[in-house]
Specification:
The protein is an alpha/beta fold. It contains 16 helices and 14 strands. α1 packs across α16.
Amino acid sequence: MSKNIWYVSKYANILKYGANTRQAYFCKYISRNNYNVRLVLSNSSHLFNDLPKFNGRYKDMVNDGYQVTWVNSKIRGTSSSIKRVISWLSFELGVVGMAWRSRYEKPDVVIASSLSILSVLSGAFYKKFFGTQFLFEVRDIWPKSIVDIKGASSKNIFIVVLRWIEHLGYRYSDTIIGTMPGLSKHVQSEVGLGSKVITIPQGFDLDFYNDKQEKLPDTYISNYLPKDKFIVTYAGTIGEANGLEYIVEAARHISEMGDSFIHFLFVGDGYLKGALKEQAKDLKNVSFAPSVKRTQVNHVLTESDLLVASVLNKPIYEYGISLNKFNDYMYAKKPIVCMYSGYHSIINEANCGEFTPSEDPASFADAIKKYSQMPQAMRETLGMNGYNHLVNNLSYDILVNKYIKIFR
């Protein structure tokens, strides 16, 4: 008899409503291994604009061979509002409420995937009352993230409550899954249970890259990608944690050296885009392009020469990162330079680029110049190293085996 697997994550999504997230891909591949899989998610999210609206508490559908249950919530707010927290509570009450709906099979395994960290409560509920195996998936270390990045006080009552929930998840779960490679160090320091942690990084779906790619309009290429330049591209969200102001300062260093060959391109949107454009307004070697559809990202990356990222120098990052953009970058077969001082992984493992110290634009600029002067054949070799590492180690059909080994 096949086991029933519930993957619970408030901010998950499927391609029909904007994009397949990590949870959707894992559901797809877990179901292909003869499990009954249900993705439980919310139609209230600040991340996606076109989620389904419906009457009633739940909406069920089938997607990629597994069941999807949307939990209805009319509470919508920004990423930092109190409405967001109320929306978390509403979602978890809906997840718990499924226990009394006869149309839903009781889960044998619940994967509670943060964010929202309150999904720990749903996982603990099903373990307590139904003997369900409870897996706590940590994709963002809360509340430490908002203490380190947002500057919230560790004594704030909200932070204290979230830390209690975090510790409950670490202690009461059967297994802790971390997307970041150093999570065990954090869990060990918090509750002394670092041995419970298994690393399953962000993956990629080869079906998506092979079958669902689209070309950008010629006008986009001609308007936003300069000709006869060495194009250094950042593609993704323009937000606080990305530390993109240091990339702009690296561009300033290069401009002041009189190098007009290297051009920095920012592709994407975010609440700090205006401030970043203001910072770069006097730089001729920096430009900004509108965000593109998920299916068009690969095209803009392949039109670039070097792909970059940046992460702030905060204690939270000593446990590592697993950025989705690394997968996009490696698939594009381009070398990668990331300004990051935490736990190094993926880029160094794949030998497809390098890390430079966080918040150090001078060192970053030196690395950029090195790659611009590197023979193209060497850059192509580094790009192919990344691609091969991605295909051989990070595809979801490979990573799913780690989850299957955990299911009792």
